[in-house]
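Re: export button greyed out
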Amino acid sequence: MLIINDKTFRPFISADAIQTRIQELAGQINEAYADQKPLLVVVLNGAFLFAADLMKNLTIPCEITFIRVASYTATESTGQLKQILGLSESVANRHLIVIEDIVDTGLTISEVCEQLSAQNPASIAIATLLFKPAALKNKIDLHYVGFEIENQFVLGYGLDYDGLGRNTKDILVLE
Ligand code: IMP
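Workaround output, generated via the alternate export path:
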């Protein structure tokens, strides 16, 4: 049990289950990308622990870089747009694996992939620790999914509520 501000969270996915699943995903990536020296593109902040544990289980040559997604309001009709910040190296002709903590509506990851695609990478795959299929707005191909979950608010293992709660080994869910 964890209380943050006015909210109570209870245990949901254990640290052991998370690590076991990450090892499985890493095994798939090791096979699929054996000769491709993939570039892991980590979407901060939420994916930092997932990315670290995933990368520790990769045995193939690979590189990592970190981006942030900043939301800004463009016009009333387009609403919030998202811009990638922090990508300093070229992704042209690279095999990219975008690492997300959670795909909820899918708007963040689709914008990120669209903006990366414009820079002509060799390929783009998505690895997300969590996926809420019920909340998805645009159809997207998710290549590596840790856990599909119901449309509930979760935190821990990198995910936050109001900036807090990222520092747990397991994932908790709002009561
Ligand atoms: P999307 O654009 O709706 O897919 O939102 C994705 C982002 O929203 C994630 O990268 C998280 O930062 C945040 N998010 C969505 N659902 C949750 C949740 O249940 N807990 C914590 N953060 C969440």
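The mean pLDDT is 94. The button fix ships in the next patch.
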